[in-house]
Amino acid sequence: xxxxxxxxxxxxxxxxxxxxxxxxxxxxxxxxxxxxxxxxxxxxxxxxxxxxxxxxxxxxxxxxxxxxxxxxxxxxxxxxxxxxxxxxxxxxxxxxxxxxxxxxxxxxxxxxxxxxxxxxxxxxxxxxxxxxxxxxxxxxxxxxxxxxxxxxxxxxxxxxxxxxxxxxxxxxxxxxxxxxxxxxxxxxxxxxxxxxxxxxxxxxxxxxxxxxxxxxxxxxxxxxxxxxxxxxxxxxxxxxxxxxxxxxxxxxxxxxxxxxxxxxxxxxxxxxxxxxxxxxxxxxxxxxxxxxxxxxxxxxxxxxxxxxxxxxxxxxxxxxxxxxxxxxxxxxxxxxxxxxxxxxxxxxxxxxxxxxxxxxxxxxxxxxxxxxxxxxxxxxxxxxxxxxxxxxxxxxxxxxxxxxxxxxxxxxxxxxxxxxxxxxxxxxxxxxxxxxxxxxxxxxxxxxxxxxxxxxxxxxxxxxxxxxxxxxxxxxxxxxxxxxxxxxxxxxxxxxxxxxxxxxxxxxxxxxxxxxxxxxxxxxxxxxxxxxxxxxxxxxxxxxxxxxxxxxxxxxxxxxxxxxxxxxxxxxxxxxxxxxxxxxxxxxxxxxxxxxxxxxxxxxxxxxxxxxxxxxxxxxxxxxxxxxxxxxxxxxxxxxxxxxxxxxxxxxxxxxxxxxxxxxxxxxxxxxxxxxxxxxxxxxxxxxxxxxxxxxxxxxxxxxxxxxxxxxxxxxxxxxxxxxxxxxxxxxxxxxxxxxxxxxxxxxxxxxxxxxxxxxxxxxxxxxxxxxxxxxxxxxxxxxxxxxxxxxxxxxxxxxxxxxxxxxxxxxxxxxxxxxxxxxxxxxxxxxxxxxxxxxxxxxx
Length: 845
What we know:
Layout: H1 3-12, H2 14-31, E1 37-38, H3 50-62, E2 68-73, H4 76-91, E3 96-100, H5 105-113, H6 117-120, H7 126-132, H8 135-150, H9 157-163, H10 169-179, E4 184-186, E5 189-191, E6 197-204, H11 211-231, E7 238-243, H12 244-278, H13 284-305, E8 309-310, H14 316-342, H15 364-400, H16 406-427, H17 429-438, H18 451-462, H19 464-481, H20 500-512, E9 518-524, H21 527-546, E10 550-554, H22 563-574, H23 578-591, H24 600-607, H25 625-629, E11 632-634, E12 639-647, H26 658-668, E13 673-676, H27 677-711, H28 714-738, H29 749-771, H30 774-797, H31 805-827, H32 829-836, H33 841-844
Parallel strand pairs: 1-8
Antiparallel strand pairs: 2-6, 2-7, 3-6, 4-5, 5-6, 9-12, 9-13, 10-12, 11-12
């Protein structure tokens, strides 16, 4: 269908088109009520990669996704009093399932190692235990007990000696110590290494990703803290709370503020720029309505593709504002020019006056015909260029949508959908709006030509050789600088820059050494199977630790041995000459002058046969439940055991080589999984490198193909693409020189600059063919190119105010790249066109 026939068709149904667009916009706006937000940073990682999947499993089951950390910083007596009172208040909250507060080692020893001592005695210790049960061993131990009590510096010693006169608990204590996190205790609380703070842990009953639950939890916890401090007279100390629930609330709040801030500012910014460029407030609805409609439709279409959108991908709205308005700017600018060209000197005589010769009456039909002609001419001249420019932009974002990172994929898909809607608007909605707008215009309008830019471009064309050499030199320098470009896969960059919860968590990690590096995960059909596998793996890892291959190891087998291991130990215990040893011990104690009564329970336990076995959830394990929960998780269909470890320091890396250790574990310990942040980030670094190269290759190829299909000449396509390829290299070179790394978000800079920046080159190249010279092309299109570029730059520039550092960095980088691209459009492209654009006489006519 020709542009003329299409313009007539749109004119016939333009009111219906406008009404349909309003209805469609209202439906799309209502659909936004179904939009769900994803505040989990880890959800951006791809599935199917063990380093990512295993880390997600580890964090979900053993990490801080279901945990609150309460830091109490102050004098010892005051912080312990606050901790005791606060623990009671927190335990009473309906949102709290359990609280790990005060832990009395003697109570644990009496409650666990008293009745269940044989269950914790390592098999390799039984020869020494048997020696200790001999007459000679008993005599030596009683002498040690007497010497200890003769110097009573510790008031708990009598209780310890009475409960364990043969010192057998020490064998079990070694195993328990290997299973528990290394932490100092003061008053029964986990104490910071500097001795000035303590740590409490609480496990809520709901999910951190339930924002309503997290808000109730935060309100109740803050109220409990305030009430506790008020009850104790507001002691001079600090209570800080962190955990995934507070991260989720911060993310949700930051996300809302970010969306409102950069979405509203970007919309206002691009509209203000349009007004400054064209000086017409009445025409703002002409560009504002398609802008809003494309954004709302993109949101609505996203509901068909994604269940949830994350914080970073929502930035597409601000990006789309800057991109979508380009079509409106070019359409409006060319429409004005075509209307001016078609307008004739018209005189409308008074009603009833005779029509003399040489007077043309402006009839409504003639006016509509001129509008249709102006719109047809606009579509005819700009249609192919718009398809190319919007198509290259949509292609760039579709390439981004191939990313394995969900945040990047969503950003690409949403913006691509918006650009496809914009292409449809260019041929349907903008012409319909044009009929409404021009029906109220009569006569010639102001000129939008840009003679200064035209002279600048013509000068660049006249001095083509030095300009080309300068561009080549700039490219070489930029490529040399990119050798120092870094990749930063750190997940911490994806969090808001100003995060109180993150500051508290970092403080806890530094003061309490809670970061254990990573873990080996063992999976079983049930708790017994998982515990049995965990014991076998832990035994092997202890050999590595003793050999210096790993720095530390914590395994649950010391706290909760498998039933099979307990049976072996109990059997070995029952085989010992315990009854005879009990009699000899009683005699030795009496001879040494000890009273018999305090030792009666220990003597009775020593002589009696032992049969009891410990199982997960038993009351005797209750004091250790928070520690066990961090190492054993029983689920509906299986169970997981986590053994925490750190690699030994490697050359040049004091934190060790996690990838090498993970490879060895998976090679020598088949069937286990490895979860570590360092391993995840190492794997993510490889993903970033592959995607960066993929984006550069695909975006270059896709843009070249689209340019060739529109321009129909290889040299023209190369000329239009070259300036932005140089700009991409310059941006990466500047990143390297300024120390800005490539992260999971700003790796999309390449397709963005190529897909968006090439739009200007497309318009100049296509119009150069139509007008026969660069001067003529830039003269009529310069204003539209400048205004559309500035609106896009503003759309990205407002992202620089985002609270998310990678999003802010991406906004600054793309704004910089597009600014340089705008300069290159008028300063470098004209120097490349003579060789590529030997315009035919047919095209000139």
